[in-house]
Amino acid sequence: ERASGRRRHAGHRRRTLGTRQIAHPAGEYGHAGAGVQLPADQQSVQRLRPDTGPDGDHRMTRIEVLEPGMLSTVQDWPGRVGYWHIGVPPSGPMDDLSFRIGNRVLQNAEGAAGLECTRGGPTLRFPDGGRVCVTGAPVPVHVNGNPAPQWQSISVPAGGILEVGTLAGPGMRCYVLIAGGLAEPEYLGSTATFTM
Fold this sequence. Notes:
- It is a single chain.
- This protein is mostly beta strands and 196 residues long.
- It is 5% helix and 22% strand.
- A hairpin with a 2-residue loop joins strand 6 (141-143) and strand 7.
- The N and C termini lie far apart (48 Å).
């Protein structure tokens, strides 16, 4: 019988669980999603050290958007969380592991703002040059018309053009991270975009 005086349903049984029987969603790594492994053909990416770049600093990089892509949004990690009670849903990168790895490659903070591109990426001009890393789903990447790799630091020369093509799958999102991150104003503690 319960303290409220109501009886338990006959099918309910009270049982205790030992600590070994309770699965913690964060596992041994401290947060949900940690310890996730990349596909076998991308395993070497997990062992990359951040790229220091030729000058080693992270000064402001100017970017001109020539083509925005199908849906390119600014995101940061962990995004905007903790506002459901006032009707604002969580936001941030859909593939936060790819997002964070790209920032680590560039020696940015894991949560530095970058671009999340859905189904197709942007074409960007870097008037003063810069360093970028494109991660996420496989996508053709070109710097000044020459193929460039994903998951690595790419130097874009002054006046250079970065083209991120159309995703053919698997996956729908890729990320364009820029050394030093994007300088965007925060709203409710995050620069993440949520499209309603």
